[in-house]
Amino acid sequence: MKHADLQLHRHAPAHGGILGELYLNGKFLCYTLERVGVAIPADVYQVLLNLSPKFRKLMPLLVSEHVPASWGVRMHCGTKPADSDACVLVGLAKLPTGAKIYKSVEAFEQLMHQLLGFDTISLTIR
């Protein structure tokens, strides 16, 4: 079985957001953005690829002991903290200062293309 090991390295909160970098099996994949105050806790998550009822497409669902699947916490497109309600937003570019990411659709497509090749996926958030 092929396993994907995602690592999210968070930076200190600023401007209402938490920027980070996402790595897949040790290689940089994209930037991330979460909203301060609703970001999920640092933990190890199982990542399930399933159909999102809200977005009506296949998306990563994050599940842990503290974050049940029923919460619907996903990785998806977005460019600013307000685009997230506990979800992890992805993007290929970011501002040097501030809490904003860009090329989110491209990052999400790249993420999904990579993840579809694995049988199991975990995400460690630090």
TrEMBL record:
Annotated DUF5675 domain residues: 8-115
Pfam families: DUF5675
InterPro entries named in the record: DUF5675
Protein name (database record): DUF5675 domain-containing protein
Species assigned in the record: Hymenobacter negativus
Taxonomic classification: Bacteria, Pseudomonadati, Bacteroidota, Cytophagia, Cytophagales
